[in-house]
Design a protein that fits this description.
Keywords: ATP-binding, DNA-binding, Nucleotide-binding, Transcription, Transcription regulation. It holds the Pfam family HTH_8. This is GAF domain-containing protein. There is one protein chain. The chain has 594 residues and is of the alpha/beta class. The protein has 5 domains: 193 residues, Beta-Lactamase; 83 residues, no CATH class; 136 residues, P-loop containing nucleotide triphosphate hydrolases (Rossmann fold, 3-Layer(aba) Sandwich); 71 residues, Helicase, Ruva Protein, domain 3 (Orthogonal Bundle), CATH 1.10.8; 42 residues, Orthogonal Bundle (Arc Repressor Mutant, subunit A). It is built from 19 helices and 17 strands. The strands form 4 sheets. Strands 2-1-5-4-3 form a 5-stranded antiparallel sheet, with helices on both faces. A hairpin with a 2-residue loop joins strand 9 and strand 10. Helix 3 packs across helix 7, helix 10 crosses helix 11 and helix 17 packs across helix 18. The longest helix has 38 residues.
Length: 594
């Protein structure tokens, strides 16, 4: 086959198609697909269908489609027809075929679960072309771009979400029979319609269940503001829509969505709103058909709106020396100060790197005159001698009036040691003269595993992603800290990238990034290309040191290769399937790197 350069015109694609197929009545849809295949640099002489481990069989599409496909498979026993379900990226989620000869042929071309059959990798084919065009397609014989697929006849139909009409995936029928194209397409359309109908039914049942729980909350004796959320639905009553407006509205929805996305999160959560008020959210899950249908929030608003904070040209620092002016952060600081000054036992809860230790040290500097600050962490060993000594030290320190004891990372305690520590603190409660401060990270443990009941105050320190307005002032503060002699500013694009970064390691990670920028020579303006690769990902996952090195190597390779995944994989010595698996794991989107 002649070589054609990427970016060839539609006319060149048609000429190539006619040269291969000798078919003067080429369908425009197929020729356009050949053009895309040429632009993707698909090699017609070899098949490259990447493989992804563990395709997601828990997606709404898979749950709705698989029972239907299984029933039809029984009816088509021994017929040389294969039925497949793919996701919207062309990953084969499921394949049903009972004809031994067809199974062998399909395996030979890797048309099997886990392999990706999008046009980008395999060129014109039923699955990839249906997904790329958004239309039902029949790709038969020589119409396939890759030679290895030209023995097959494929009918594929896109499957759309019943309400949003977004692409979920495709249903595909493949056979090696000739002359049955019309029947094959009619059957594929019928099955796709059944799958869409089942998705609609499941969605409807889940939405009805959520609506039932929402109406039940609204019709209670004292309903107050009520919000209900799922992936597809947002409902709120008049009390909530009237009481929460403007920035408070968006902040409340943003936090509620984050809570709703964690199916095990229930109970009561407090949220500081931009206006200065606090929203107390009582969360109850709506579970139907062994799956999560969303969450209902009963909202209680505390306080009155305060005047908005002024816009500062310099980093905003409180009288404690802490940077930041977002309401969430200021509320945490104020509540912590009140408890600390009163000598109340305090429990600080927040993700790693949010500044819990920094907050305690600032409070001690400002209000701990004459008192000694002691910090300890869970012991590294579970041996009886070590744990006994650790508990004894805690008891000794809490009997000293001038001591502020900080027990860090109590979420890391094992069940047995947690139980013993609770018993010790319960025994000391009311008699201890020292002040206790606990710090922990949010966990999925139930309330009975926490120490809230032993502390007079529980304060949630917000993650950096919830302190949107503070990211710029913190970045400038750290930049000045590590480069005191220079003055640098962020370009609008660089600032936007910083504010969009999820910062899974929070303020600690932002400080590390700014320290690295300060050590590198740069002009007065910091641009997006000056920012390190970790600012260009969307994952909230906290990485190990080795994982971070791997992520950065992939990011730098993609940036050097203009987001070309195949070439970057070759440079790194890994397969393209592995490359895509790691990109998905680290939240790397190639289009965001250019």
């Amino acid at each position: 086959m002649p070589r054609h350069q990427p970016g060839s015109s539609l006319r060149a694609a048609r000429e190539l198609y006619l040269e291969v197929t000798k078919d003067p009545s080429a369908r425009p849809l197929v020729v356009a697909s050949w053009q895309r295949s040429m632009e993707h640099q698909v090699k017609s002489g070899s098949l490259d269908a990447p493989y992804l481990d563990n395709p997601n069989l828990e997606s709404p599409l898979a749950r709705a489609a698989l029972p239907i496909v299984d029933r039809l498979h029984e009816q088509l026993a021994d017929d040389p027809v294969s039925m497949m379900i793919t996701d919207r990226n062309g990953v084969v989620l499921s394949r049903r075929v009972s004809h031994e000869g067809l199974t062998t042929n399909l395996n030979r071309v890797r048309l099997a679960p886990g392999h990706v059959f999008s046009e980008r990798y395999v060129g014109t084919n039923g699955i990839g072309t249906a997904l790329a065009s958004g239309r039902p397609v029949m790709i038969a014989g020589l119409e396939h771009y890759v030679e290895a697929l030209r023995d097959f006849h494929c009918a594929a139909v896109p499957i759309l979400h019943p309400t949003r009409r977004t692409l979920l995936g495709a249903f595909n029928l493949t056979t090696i029979r000739q002359g049955s194209d019309g029947m094959l397409m009619a059957f594929a359309r019928s099955v796709a319609a059944q799958i869409e109908g089942e998705i609609a039914a499941i969605t409807s049942r889940r939405e009805r269940a959520l609506f039932h729980d929402y109406m039940e909350a609204c019709s209670s004796v004292r309903p107050g503001p009520v919000l209900a959320l799922s992936r597809d639905v947002v409902m709120m009553n008049e009390q909530l829509s009237a009481a929460v407006t403007g920035p408070d509205h968006y902040a409340l929805l943003d936090h509620a969505r984050e809570i709703a996305d964690s199916p095990r999160t229930e109970g009561t959560r407090s949220l500081a709103l931009p206006s200065g008020r606090v929203a107390e959210l009582r969360v109850s899950r709506c579970r139907r058909e062994h799956s999560d249908a969303g969450a209902v929030f009963r909202v209680r608003l505390i306080g009155r709106p305060q005047p908005g904070p002024a816009v500062f040209a310099a980093p905003v620092r409180s009288d404690l020396g802490l940077v930041g002016s977002s309401p969430h952060w200021l509320r945490a600081v104020a509540d912590s100060r009140t408890a600390f000054v009163a000598g109340t036992w305090l429990h600080l809860v927040g993700e790693a790197g949010v500044g819990k230790r920094t907050l305690v040290e600032a409070l001690h500097r400002a209000h701990g005159a004459g008192r000694r600050l002691e910090m300890t962490q869970p012991p590294l060993s579970d041996s009886p001698a070590v744990t006994e000594g650790w508990l004894h030290d805690i008891e000794e320190l809490l009997t000293v009036p001038s001591t502020v004891l900080v027990l860090r990372d109590v979420h890391l305690l094992g069940d047995q040691l947690r139980h013993r520590l609770r018993n010790l603190l319960t025994h000391l409660d009311g008699t201890a003269t020292g002040q206790l401060v606990l710090t922990s990270q949010p966990s999925m443990a139930g309330m009975e595993d926490r120490f809230d009941q032993l502390c007079g105050a529980l304060v949630e320190v917000p993650p950096l992603r919830h302190r949107h307005a503070d990211i710029e002032v913190l970045a400038r503060f750290f930049l000045r800290k590590y480069r005191p002699s220079g003055e640098s500013r962020f370009s609008p694009d660089a600032l936007t990238m910083l504010q969009r970064c999820p910062w899974p390691e929070n303020v600690r990670q932002l400080e590390s990034v700014m320290r690295g920028l300060a050590r590198r020579p740069s002009g007065p303006m910091i641009h997006t290309e000056d920012l390190p690769p970790e600012c260009r990902v969307s994952s909230h996952k906290v990485l190990t040191a080795i994982e971070a090195l791997e992520r950065d190597a992939i990011l730098r390779g993609l940036m050097d290769r203009n987001s070309n995944v195949q070439r970057t994989a070759q440079d790194l010595g890994i397969s393209r399937a592995t490359m895509y698996r790691k990109m998905r794991r680290y939240g790397i989107v190639p289009s965001s790197l250019t």
